[in-house]
Amino acid sequence: MKSVRVNLVLAAVLLAILGAVLHPLALLLGLIPFDTRPIVGFLEALRNAIANLLGWGLFSLVVIMLAFVIRGRFSKPKRDSAMAKWFRDVDSHTEVPEPPDRVVVVITAYNDAVATARAVRDFKRQPGVVEVLVIDNNSIDQTAELAAAEGGTVILETQQGYGYACMRGLSEATKVPGADVVVLTEGDGTFVAEVLPKFLAYASHADLVVGNRVVRGLVDGD
Predict the structure, then answer these.
(1) pLDDT(90) > 60
(2) CA torsion, points 201, 203, 205, 206, in degrees to nearest 10?
């Protein structure tokens, strides 16, 4: 079917080229110093026939397209497409919601008392969060006190450095009984607690989910 359409298009193009060439050819024949009227008349008739053929072909194409449009507007589809059926099944399918994952949130903290306390409070409000661990990396402000006041479990990591704090947090998180997921974040508000469901949506499909704050498609408008 595709080859037939291609052949028809090629034929139409060739006819159009031929019709365009016939007119200047007839003019050239008229300049020859002997009687070329029969040939010129034949070429003119052929050019008119080609023009009529192309014109009627274009008109027929428009009529056929219009008929398809009208039929598509007023006829009911005999069957749903696969995608439409999928969306209908999803909308009509009801499942008993599974219990949320038991989440342990690890917050690394260093001299950021107010933000860390706010992070503890916000993460503890999230469904499924069973423990919030605050890894205090030798803060000299009230980071430990304010985090504990908000319900966080404060753990002091004496070896200075972000890497040490992260490794200590992951190590302590694995000791929480029944934990399914460990979330590692900073206490400076880099990631807010409300985005936790976005991470958990991938929990059953990946071993590690990494948040990104620089890709435009992953950053909120505000």
Answers:
(1) no
(2) 130
Given the structure tokens 């499909």, which residue do they identify? 205
H-assigned helices in the chain: 2-30, 37-74, 82-92, 113-124, 143-149, 162-173, 196-200
DSSP bridge partners of 144 = none
Give yes or no: residues 73 and 163 share one domain: no
**What strands, in cross-sheet order, belong to the sheet with 103-109?**
153-156, 129-136, 103-109, 181-186
Stated pTM of the model: 0.53
Residue 130 token pair? 């069973």
3-state secondary structure of 89: helix
**Are 172 and 199 in a shared domain?**
yes
Tell whether 213 and 117 lie within a shared domain: yes
Helical (H) or strand (E) element with 108: strand 103-109
Q: What is the pLDDT of residue 96?
A: 46
Pairing of strands 129-136, 103-109: parallel
How many structural domains does the chain have?
2
One domain for residues 131 and 38: no
The answer to whether residues 15 and 111 belong to one domain is: no
Asked if residue 111 and residue 36 are part of one domain, the reply reads no
What range does the domain containing 86 cover?
2-91
pLDDT of residue 17: 72
Would you state the pLDDT for residue 68? 78
Q: Using a CB cutoff of 8 Å and minimum separation of 24, what contacts does 17-24 make?
A: 18/50, 19/47, 19/50, 19/51, 19/54, 22/46, 22/47, 22/50, 23/47
Q: Is 185 exposed, middle or buried (0-12, 13-18, 19+ CB in 10 A)?
A: buried
